[in-house]
Amino acid sequence: MSAPVVQISHLHFGPASKPVLDNINLELEAGHFLGIVGPNGAGKSTLLNILAGLTQPSGGHIDLFGKCLTRFSRHALLKQIGFLNQLHDHEPRLPMRVRDVVAMGLSNYTMPWQFGDHDGALMSALQLVDMQNLAEADFRMLSGGQRQRTRLARALVRQPRLLLLDEPSAALDSVRQEKLFQLLRRLCDETGMSVIMVEHDIAAISSHVDSVACLNGQIHHHAMKGEDIPEDIWRAMYGDHIHIMAHDAGCIGCGPSDVHKPHDHGHVS
b/e map of 200-230 (b: 16 or more CB within 10 Å)? Predict the structure, then answer.
């Protein structure tokens, strides 16, 4: 039996008196599509940054692909990870072609003279996000949604075994969001790639992911597909200031017995 793609044990981050992440335990197998939901400030982005090797945890242990993530193993392990960080409005619009932005995701990006050897990989990544016709376009001239799709292609270009996504549907319209989630589901099923994706709307992702982790400082609940998420979990994460909308029985968090209830667990905002 192969080792889990990700194995997190007793992970902590932040001061002991007020940790950002507290005793996080999580295991992810190859081909698993995990959604992470939680309020602002819950530590979702911090968790992804730690897995991407950008932030050092305060304590705990992380294994990636069966090997301990340390400062010595970090470089080799992270070559197998694609990362799309959160989109910020103040991000600079680089004077680069779309294909050059995608090439930044290659593991040998510091050797740009070798980019010609990777034209096939660049175009394949752009095709996955329907951006192949804009490969030569100026990145600065793109719409917000096109820039986000270019950034996603950058995360996919190295064909990672693990893909970390922080709100990847930001700036995408509803049609593009659905195409994105379908693409991620297909990559998990067909290539064995594992995905950890932070999103706010459980209803949007629930029919695509294998499980949902409810995170606010700690993992309050980890629901597999078809499992109901109790209302007290939502209250523990969001407090009393939540709005719960009806959804269908096919989603994670929506048990069949709850479909006709006015407070179904389909969407939290």
Answer: bebbbbbbbbbbbbbbbbbbbbbbebeebbe
- Please give the Cα distance from 102 to 125 (Å, whole number): 8
Q: Which residues contact 103 (CB under 8 A, 6 or more apart)?
A: 109, 112, 115, 118, 122, 154, 157
Per-residue pLDDT of the chain (269 residues; tens, 9 = 90+): 688 999 999 999 999 999 999 999 999 999 999 999 999 999 999 999 999 999 999 999 999 999 999 888 988 999 999 999 987 765 566 688 999 999 999 977 655 555 556 789 999 999 999 999 999 999 999 999 999 999 999 999 999 999 999 999 988 999 999 999 999 999 999 999 999 999 988 888 989 999 999 999 999 999 998 788 888 888 888 876 666 554 554 555 544 434 333 333 333 43
This prediction has a pTM of 0.87
